[in-house]
Amino acid sequence: MKMAARPTPAANLAARASRAPTAQSHSGEQAVRWRGATYLLPALLFLGLFFLVPLLGLLLRGVLEPTPGLGNYEQLFASSAYSKVLFNTFAVASLVTLFSLLLGFPLAWAITLTPNGWGRWLLNIVLLSMWTSLLARTYSWLVLLQSSGVINSTLQSLGLINEPLAMVHNLTGVVIGMSYIMIPFIVLPLQATMSAIDPMVLQAGSICGASPLRSFFKVFLPLCRPGIFSGGLMVFVMSLGYYVTPALLGGAQNMMLPEFIIQQVQSFLNWGLASAAAALLILITLVLFYVYLKLQAESPVASSTAR
Amino acid sequence: MLLSPNAMGRRLRYGLFCTTAIIALFLLLPIVFIVLLSFGSSQWLIFPPPGWTLKWYGQFFANEQWMTSALVSLKVAVLTTICALALGLPAAFALVRGRFPGRELLYALFTLPMIVPLVIIAVAVYALFLKLGYTGTLFAFVVSHVIVALPFTVISLINSLKLFDQAIEDAAVICGASRLQAILKVTFPAIRPGIVAGALFAFLVSWDEVVLSVMMASPSLQTLPVKMWTTLRQDLTPVIAVASTLLIGLSFLVMLIAALLRRRTSPTR
User: Fold this and answer.
1) Which spans are transmembrane here (chain B) (predicted)?
2) ipTM for the whole complex
C-alpha cells in the first residue's frame, strides 16, 4: 500500500521487476490459463485503439507529411531556431535535475534520520506539495516572482536591489518553478535508498577514524548513489516532457520541446514537424527510461528496498 | 553515524535541521501564499493585502463559466474513475493471476502512458478525435483521461492483489461459493484499500489534468483547469487564486483519506 500511495512510476515498476512472480495456486489447465488472459482484452482494446494507434499515427505523419521522406527531421536539425529549442530542453532539464537534487538530498536525509519526529513533518510537507494542483502551484509562482511580486518588493524594501529582478518569463522562472515541482520525485526514491543503508557501515567508518566530512563523501554519498541516479534520471526524463510550467513561467526565448510541439500543432498546423519533434522526444524518453530500469535492476540497495 | 541523529554531532544536526526547515518553507510558500491571496482584497495581488475579503469567492461562485467548468471537471473525473476501475480491475486480475506468455511485456504496455510525455499523448489523441470529429465532447475528455489514469489504477490494484493470498478465495470456492461470489465477497473486500487508492489516483489525475484537457476543450465544454489556464493567459485575477485554493483543499482532503487508509491497512501487513 505504501508503494501504491507514491506515484513514482518507476519505483513501482522496479518493485515489480525485482520481485519474482508469486507462486500460483492454479497451474496446468490451458483453458483456465487463457481464460485469465481474456480479462485483459477490454483494457488492451482500449489502449490499443486510443493510445497505441494514435501514437503510431502521429509518428507516421512525421515521415509522410507534407511529402514522404525525412524532410521534417532534416529541418529539425538544420534550422538553428529549432536546435536552440533542443538545446534549451536539455539545459532546463539538467538545471532542474541539479537543483532538485541539491534541495531534495537534505530533505531525504532528515526524513531518514527522524522518521517519527521532524522527518514525518517533512515527509507530509513533501507529499502535500506533490498532491497540490500543478496549475495552482505554477500560478502561485507566477504571482510570487513577477516584477511587482512579493519577492521583488521584499528585496527592494530591504535595499538589496534597486530594480526589480526579472524572474519570470525567462530561464530563472522555469528553473525555479520546475525544481519546486520535481523535489518530491527526488525525495521519495532517495529516502528509500537511504533507509536501506545499514547505519553500522557508517559507524564502522567513524570507528576507523573517518571525520564526518570524510565519511559523508567516502561512505554515505556513494551508498546513496543508486537513489541519486534513479531519482535524478527520473526527474530529468519528466522535465524533458513538461509543458504547463515552462509554458507559463518561461518566455518565448527559451521554448522547450513540448511547447514547440503544441505550437506547431495549434498555431502553425505543421503536423509533420510536430510529429518529428514528438518522435525525437519519445526516443530520448524511452532510451533514458531504459537506462533507468537497468540502473534499478543492478543496484543492490534499491532492490533490497523494493517490497 | 551520519544516520543516527544522536551520534551525528550537534553542529551537523542543527545544520541539517535548519537547512531542511528552509527547504520546507520553500515547499510550503506557494501553497500558503495562494490561499492567503484568495482572501486578499487587492485586485493586483499585492502582498500583504491591504485588507481581507470574500469578494473573489463571491465572484467565483456567481460566475456561470467557473461553476460550469467545475461541474464538468467533476463529471469527467467521476466518469474517468469508473472507467479506469472497470478496465483496470479485470486487467489487474489477469496480470497477477494469469500465466500466459508475454505478461511482462503487457505490464510494460500498461505503464507506457505514464512514461510517454503527456504532450505527445495529447497531440496524438487530439489528432484522432479531430479526424473523428469528437473534440470538445465529454467522450473525448473521459477517454483521454482514462489513458493516463489507467496505469496508476492498475499498479495500485496489482500491488494489493499480490498481497492477497488466493488460497483464501479458493477456500470460499471449496466451501461452495461460485468463483464470482468468492471474488465479490472475499477478494474485493480484502483488496479494498487497493481499489480505493486506485480510484483516488484516477480521480486526482483527471481532476488535475491540464495538457490533455486543453487540447480536448472547446469554448462550450471545458474543465476547471482549462478555464484556469485560459484565464491565466489573459490576466492574473484573484479569482484564479480562489479556484487554486479550492483545488488545494480538495488535494488536502484526498491526502487525508489516503493517510487514513494507510494507517488502517498497515497492521495487516
Assistant:
1) 12-39, 76-96, 105-129, 135-158, 195-216, 236-261
2) 0.86
